[in-house]
Amino acid sequence: MAVNTKIALVTGGSRGLGKNMAIAIAKKGIDVIITYNSKKDEADAVVKEIEGLGQKAASLQLNVADSGTFDGFFNQVSEALRSTFQTDKFDFLVNNAGIGIHNSFVGTTETEFDQLTNIQFKGPFFLTQKALIFLNDGGGIVNISTGLARFSFPGYAAYAAMKGAIETLTRYQAKELGTRKIRVNVVAPGAIETDFGGGVVRDNEQMNQQIASVTALGRVGLPDDIGGVVAFLCTEDARWVNAQRIEVSGGMML
């Protein structure tokens, strides 16, 4: 008798780290739903890549900054689960979607602060809350934080503060959802070469070298360094890992 394939929902899975996570999860034999904000063509390409690995996949539009759209989004999730995956629930939620705003503490505007709050904290808070009726008992949630919640670089006060809030929330979620055997963990990437934050780590050679110089393994991170860790947390091998912050930074700022 065939084993029921598990399903993961990865927000912001059309590009960058989210794309890497989605593909790494698919390589574990897990089906994947990804969300995108505006780049449908990129999302469709990821779906095709996942299907090429032998897994089912679907992409849905989601703006995590607008919690008022979440009910409608989960109506679409429900329809996709039925039509593409022939089920009514999924097993893992990866809260990855986000943006980076680089500004000093003194220079951060209320508009920037509110934008970061909505995308980095309020969005994942209420998206996860609404996801719970679709999440199987014994499943898992992976929240994405940042190394900047542990070490400090000027210009990320608001962004890192939101991620610090996510890390605290993760422990409370693990505590309260434990009765359903749902595990909740944080993955905190260090500096990674992607287009995130305008591609500053990837494209600014001075910044790249500075980060490499304070990293024990002597280089800046790549997307391939992150996805496999998130995928691991979506497997049975991680069944006893709960309420943990796993930093994946190559040993930055030790």
TrEMBL record:
InterPro entries hit by this protein: NAD(P)-bd_dom_sf (IPR036291), SDR_fam (IPR002347)
Keywords (A to Z) from UniProt: Oxidoreductase
Pfam family, one: adh_short_C2
Gene3D superfamilies: NAD(P)-binding Rossmann-like Domain
Domain of life of the native organism: Bacteria
Membership in a protein family: Belongs to the short-chain dehydrogenases/reductases (SDR) family.
The protein, known as: SDR family oxidoreductase
